[in-house]
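Here is the promised in-class demo. Please do not try to memorize the tokens; focus on the logic of going from shape to residues.
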């Protein structure tokens, strides 16, 4: 019969409408977790994509509360659904633009670690306005990180890695680990899908550990 679903298939999911989003207005990041979640370090994963970094970090650091923000609603929905399925209740996945969300977030100094995995895949100058890692975003990260907290950035594009390193080194609020501003290994057990693929393909990954002064 026309217009019916084939036997055994499910109706399409409208991910954009179902993806979890943070409240409007001024946002208190710890309030994204229910009171029964308790305390512990507060971490942020920006651009988690298919979610490998969120899952691996939730398992590696069970004492942490981890907030994930992904601009693609489809992946935010899928990842949040899987987090709940596997009982990883100290990790949350939200859809949205991290640049806009962090600019209205607080309190200052509430974050212990911020992860930014393989950002800014746009090459042409006209796309510069779409870049995640820019001066304004960095200012918000600095404000939200506690002294001694870490901003961890990684990319598989060498000139992007150099650009990110120089931006953070020149900002004045960070000390970068490694003699040349890069570290060889991922120290956090939070490997993103892109990182896994890059390593499988034999591509170098440029990792930056920037510690808040």
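The designed amino acids, position by position:
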């Amino acid at each position: 019969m026309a217009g019916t679903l084939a036997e055994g298939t499910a109706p399409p999911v409208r991910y954009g409408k179902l993806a979890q989003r943070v409240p409007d207005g001024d946002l208190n990041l710890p309030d994204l977790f229910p009171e029964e979640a308790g305390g512990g370090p507060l971490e942020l994963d920006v651009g988690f994509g298919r979610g490998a970094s969120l899952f691996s970090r939730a398992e590696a650091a069970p004492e942490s509360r981890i907030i994930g923000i992904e601009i693609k609603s489809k992946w935010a929905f899928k990842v949040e659904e899987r987090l709940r399925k596997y009982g990883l209740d100290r990790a949350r996945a939200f859809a949205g633009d991290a640049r806009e969300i962090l600019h209205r977030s607080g309190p200052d100094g509430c974050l212990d670690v911020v992860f930014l995995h393989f950002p800014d895949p746009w090459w042409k100058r006209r796309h510069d306005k779409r870049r995640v890692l820019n001066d304004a975003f960095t200012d918000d990260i600095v404000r939200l990180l506690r002294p001694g907290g870490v901003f961890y950035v990684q990319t598989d594009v060498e000139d992007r890695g150099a650009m990110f390193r120089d931006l953070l080194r020149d900002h004045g609020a960070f000390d970068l680990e490694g003699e040349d501003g890069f570290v060889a290994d991922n120290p956090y057990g939070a490997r993103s899908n892109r990182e896994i693929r890059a390593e499988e393909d034999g591509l170098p990954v440029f990792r930056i550990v920037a510690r808040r002064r």
